[in-house]
Amino acid sequence: MATSTLKLTANDQVEVNNYHHDGNEDGGCSMSIAIPGQKLMDINSDVISGHGTYEHKDGIYSSLAGYVKLEENKEQPGKTMVSVQTTRHKHLVPVLGGLVTSRVTQATPRFCKVDIIAVEKSIFEIPFRGLLRKEDVRATEKDKVEIHKCFRPGDIVLCRVISVGDSQSYILSTAENELGVIVAYSEAGAAMLPISWREMQCPRNLAVEFRKVAKPTADYIDQIKELLHKIVIK
């Protein structure tokens, strides 16, 4: 059975083709991630709606969170069926108001770009894009926030999802005492230790670096110990 990755036209609402899942339970075909209500493609005579999708006006939309699959329709040769398949994982996508674990990929004076790599104990095979804006770093003195003193590329940060942005990106916040950097490495390459809510120290050379340090609860730390180990050694 022929399969292929979903390709979107320039008129479609979102670009799911930025994410690929290589090697899955259905024989290793390449797939793309979709979320409920997302437009997958325009309706045309060569494509029919399958499991996990529905037609609305001039488009085919996803009704599930899962992987988009295109395959030849056996009952109607020459036509392609688009479907959305879920996985056995409890959490496939971040949810509004939920906590996520992310890795900083880029820091600018106005925001950080992050890869959302996990929810609770579940690590995503394909990370989601996230954006942490300067005004969402902390709850007070927002105008005094300096991104480079809060986060650096490679930091593992505990965030809360506060909005869904464009192109499958999520707007995140660390404006709570429990949220912020939970794992960071010094310029010397050592895992740093928190010494205050805004500083971490390298155990090798005792150098101090600025961070927006998280103060997660003991229960949450116990819950994600195994997750952090997997993330750090990945």
Question: Can you characterise this structure?
Answer:
The structure is a single chain. The strands form four sheets. Strands 1, 2, 4, 7 and 8 form a five-stranded mixed sheet that branches. The longest helix is centred in the C-terminal third of the chain and has 16 residues, at about 220-234. The chain is elongated and about 70 Å long. The chain is built from one helix and 17 strands. The protein has about 230 residues and is mainly beta.
User: Averaging pLDDT over every residue, what do you get?
Assistant: 80
Beginning-to-end CA distance, first to last residue = 34 Å
Question: How many helical stretches?
Answer: 1
Total number of beta strands = 17
Radius of gyration from CA coordinates: 20 Å
Class by alpha and beta content: mainly beta
Series of secondary-structure elements, N-terminal to C-terminal: EEEEEEEEEEEEEEEEEH
* Beta-strand percentage range: 35-45%
Helix content: under 10%
| Sheet with the most strands, sense and barrel status | 5 strands, mixed
Low-confidence stretches: 1-30
Task: Write down the overall geometry.
Answer: elongated
